[in-house]
Specification:
The structure holds 2 protein chains of 2 kinds.
Chain A: H1 2-9, E1 17-20, E2 34-37, H2 42-52, H3 56-60, E3 71-75, E4 78-80, E5 90-95
Parallel strand pairs in A: 1-5
Antiparallel strand pairs in A: 1-2, 3-4, 3-5
Chain B: E1 25-31, E2 34-40, E3 47-53, E4 58-64, E5 72-77, E6 84-88, E7 96-97, E8 115-121, E9 130-135, E10 138-142, E11 150-151, H1 153-156, H2 161-164, E12 177-182, E13 190-194, E14 198-202, E15 210-211, E16 232-238, E17 241-249, E18 252-257, E19 278-283, E20 291-295, E21 313-316, E22 324-326, E23 344-346, E24 354-357, E25 363-366, E26 374-377, E27 383-390
Chain lengths: ~100, ~400
């Protein structure tokens, strides 16, 4: 199932990054747990997927280009503190702990 | 070829047009964990629940366009995700996210919208215009029925902004621009209420603003009657007399009759053991001298619960000269209800219906202008807002 969804995203032939989507955002990706994106930074990767899933980026990055308080992003396994972080292969987006 | 017979003119109908059958009410309820719609029969006696919608989302406000289109807007965010606006043009059956939700202009160390708090349809002469108030305090406008939103520079970039809305000031959920009120006679005449600087007036459609807080107390300031700095919990115009503004402030209940500038603390007439602290004030739809408040305990450490554990609304029918207690139906003791500022509302029916939602997830209704209240729902999440509209 996931493979099939991934396959449909591979039409973007420049896509070089896999962005892992947390449960909180999968209503944007039609349930896909990961999508492909093009770019060399977290910012570029998120802008790329926002073009296909409008609105997804603003839910995790605010209007000043800051990562939202309760969102964690990792680029190739390293915590990204800003969207300028470079990435070669994988972006993980997580909903971090927030109160009940 | 047969000659066509002349058609008879249809008989003129002389019967009077049928009166619209009475319709019930729908309550649009926003909670910390999603949205629910409660719809009543025509008598407002039985209620049917529809929900949850957007379970788990923090819903600060749900508002229906009262100018004909019926568009519904919902201010939402989640614990993790940033704020957005959902729109429905089919009475809540389906929802679509705004293409560009309220957001401040990008600048170094710039502000970011935490959540949209208040949604308001624009003036009747501007049918696709909506206004939004946010936390941190920000004013935003949409001219395409809520699809895209623009920052209103006249307030958000005002040279006084840092003084009116200091970053260390605000409610536990963040500083607010919590009300936008438009003069029904003039689209360019507006009032806003903030939790950081009180009430402001604009006479040029939000291009410029000036404080309007004379004689309104700010007991938490060195100067208790400053030009600005008050915490205006709620303002509303009397529908039958738009020059009359009612205000429930952090420090009392007030009334201002324009063009006057000095607010009158009409809460001084409230019983001393109840006080005049609360979140909301509701003007009567057809009587400019009548309004309701929902007092809360603002003593000592500010419990914000019903004073003495005895819930009640209070009504004035003489513009604030005196107040009468309305507590029939509520617990006589051990009723520690908290009702947030957007969670006390009314309908326009005869007699007027009053509705309130509590932080404990209860919904109460009165269909006789506060004469008796009945509980119509329990076990909802913490209720943030209740709006009453014609049944949808």
């Amino acid at each position: 199932m996931e493979g099939a969804k991934l396959g449909t995203r591979m039409k973007n032939e420049h896509a070089n990054i896999t962005v892992f989507i947390p449960t909180q955002l999968r209503n944007y990706t039609n349930g896909a747990t990961s999508v492909r994106a093009a770019g060399v930074t977290v910012d570029e990767a998120l802008r790329d997927i926002d073009a296909r899933y409008p609105g997804i980026r603003f839910r995790v990055i605010d209007e000043q280009n800051r990562i939202r308080e309760h969102v964690r992003i990792f680029a190739d396994g390293e915590r990204a503190l800003t969207t300028a972080a470079s990435v070669k292969g994988e972006v993980h987006v997580f909903g971090a702990l927030t109160g009940g | 070829m047969a000659k066509a017979k002349p058609r008879k003119k249809p008989a003129k109908r002389t019967a009077r047009p049928k009166a619209k059958p009475p319709r019930g009410v729908t309550l649009l309820i926003g909670t910390r964990k999603g949205a629910w719609f409660f719809s009543s029969d025509a008598n407002r006696k039985s209620w049917r629940v529809d929900g949850p919608h957007f379970l788990g989302n923090i819903i600060n406000h749900i508002v229906q366009d009262n100018r004909g289109t019926g568009t519904l807007l919902m201010a939402a965010k989640t614990g993790h995700l940033g704020p957005t606006i959902f729109r429905s043009t089919d009475k809540g059956k389906t929802w679509k996210e705004a293409a560009r939700p309220p957001a401040f202009p990008q600048k170094e160390n710039g502000r970011a919208v935490s959540h949209s708090f208040w949604l308001s349809p624009g003036h009747a002469s501007e049918p696709r215009v909506w206004w939004a108030g946010t936390s941190p305090p920000g004013l935003f406008v949409s001219t395409d029925d809520g699809v895209s939103w623009e920052s209103v520079s006249g307030f958000n970039d005002n040279e006084m902004y840092a003084k009116w809305c200091p970053p260390d000031s605000g409610t536990p959920d963040g500083a607010l621009l919590n009300q936008i009120v438009i003069d029904p006679r003039d689209a360019s005449h507006m009032y806003i209420a903030t939790s950081t600087a009180g009430v402001f007036e604009s006479i040029d459609r939000a291009r410029s603003w000036r404080p309007l807080n004379k004689n309104v107390e700010a007991s938490f300031m060195p100067d208790p009657y400053p030009e600005y700095g008050q915490d205006a919990h709620y303002i509303a115009l009397a529908p039958t007399m738009p020059d009359r503004i009612w205000q429930q402030n952090h420090c009392g209940i007030y009334r201002l009759d324009r063009p006057g500038e000095k607010w009158d603390r009409i809460g001084n007439a409230m019983p001393k053991d109840v006080g005049d602290i609360g979140f909301t004030i509701l003007p009567h739809p057809r009587d400019e001298n009548t309004a309701w408040v929902w007092p809360m305990d603002g003593t000592t450490v500010w419990p914000r619960t019903s004073p003495g554990g005895k819930p009640a609304a209070y009504r004035t029918r003489n513009a604030g000269k005196s107040w009468e207690r309305q507590d029939r139906g509520f617990p006589k003791k051990q009723g520690w209800l908290t009702v947030k500022r957007q969670a006390f509302c009314r309908d326009d029916k005869k007699p007027v219906g009053l509705y309130l939602g509590t932080t404990g997830g209860e919904v109460w209704a009165s269909i006789n202008e506060g004469g008796r209240f009945a509980q119509i729902a329990t076990h909802l999440p913490e209720i943030y807002s209740v709006e009453a509209v014609e049944r949808i």
